[in-house]
Amino acid sequence: MQPVPLHSLSELERASLQEIALYQLQEKLFSFLLIAGPKGSKSIRQKLESFSKEKKDCSPQTFGIPLFQVIANDRAYKQLQEEVKKSRRLCLEVEATVTRFRAERQKSNDSVLGHCGVVSATLQITSAPSQGAMSVDSITDLSDNTSKLLEALQLSHPHELDPRRTLGKKKMLSLNPITWQVPRIVERCCKHIETHGKYTVAFVLLLSSIFKLREEFDRGLDVFLDEHQSVHDVAALLKEFLRDMPDSLIPRELYAAFLSTASMEGPVQLATLQLLLFLLPPCHSDTLHRLLQFLSKVARHAESSWGPDGQEIPGNKMTVSNLATIFGPNILQKEKPGEKDAGAMNFEDSSAIILVLQRLIEYYQTLFMVSPEMQLDILRRLFQTDPDVIDYLLRRKHGAAGGHLTAWGQSFPAATLTTLLASD
């Protein structure tokens, strides 16, 4: 086996990895991770699981709602857009059929007038099999109501697009990698700044008006960010989105654990941070990964450089330390937005947050990889809880590895490794 990206694991494997990471942290490093929730009734594991469960419906589409709900809204919008495209294709088919029929009828009228009555009897217009069939009483009715028909097709969409129908239902965990879960607003803000703001000096320090952009995202509009949008506004919008999340990007239940790694050094610090990252729900983990990737790209242009013609290209001054100072308090939050002490932070916590986020930015590529040893631990655990899925998971890895899997320093066929796991 080779190290693999965290997001390449199946949903079932990621759930098992969470359990393993929590066990290792509790047993070896952080006994305080066993602390209960505010009322003493929830373990941290239960709290993390609750992040992916259905919650009260919220009217905003993006800001101030749980991250999983933002992603669900994005998916519903994407499905709606796909349905609109299908409807438009159907409309074009209808228009083409009407045009063709009119041409044929005119040709028929010019040649044989006596056959017009036969032509106007019934028209059956059939779309693609998945769209079903549609008919009208006569071509005259269709022609007169074309605009209304097209409008109805463009506005209609199936009821199952409502994201609430898919939330809160008990389902089996998938054996395949789950969809990359990064909100549209995060992806577009990061991409915009990577494209237009790499060389902008101190781009996140200017506070500009972002009310219009925020309102458009919250209304569920398809907001496109291009060169006409200020990099400062987009950066401030991204910070505001992270700040207003009711469940912060790094859950508050892990706040103390993450901060405690600031006092560690070297491999121990990185190993602990990696286990803590493995605890995050997939949507939080994937979004954090994308954000750290973005911050790392921006930091590469902090220093001035020289172009091919010998001209100096000024740096953006956004070092890893500066980025950690600016974004850290929005990623690691102790209090919920709006609470009495929200935003208040002592010097020790502030310094620890900056240091921790620096490490995350510097080593994010390594931290979000799953080692071969951890993959084997996952397989061992699943062999105890879900033995029927082992063959499928090994075949998937078997194909990716070109025929054999490496374990304990040796190469084994997938079937042999299954036997070894059973006897281990």
TrEMBL record:
Q: What is this protein called?
A: Rho-GAP domain-containing protein
Q: Which residues cross the membrane?
A: none
The Rho-GAP domain sits at 173-368
Looking up PANTHER family in the UniProt record yields: RHO GTPASE ACTIVATING PROTEIN 6-RELATED (PTHR12635:SF7), RHO-GTPASE-ACTIVATING PROTEIN 6 FAMILY MEMBER (PTHR12635)
Keyword Zinc listed? The answer is: no
Keyword Disulfide bond assigned: no
Q: What processes does the entry annotate via GO biological process terms?
A: signal transduction
Q: Which GO terms describe its molecular function?
A: GTPase activator activity
Organism listed in the record: Bubo bubo (Eurasian eagle-owl)
Q: Mind listing the UniProt keywords for this protein, alphabetically?
A: GTPase activation
Which SMART domains does the entry mention?
A: RhoGAP (SM00324)
Give the domain of life: Eukaryota
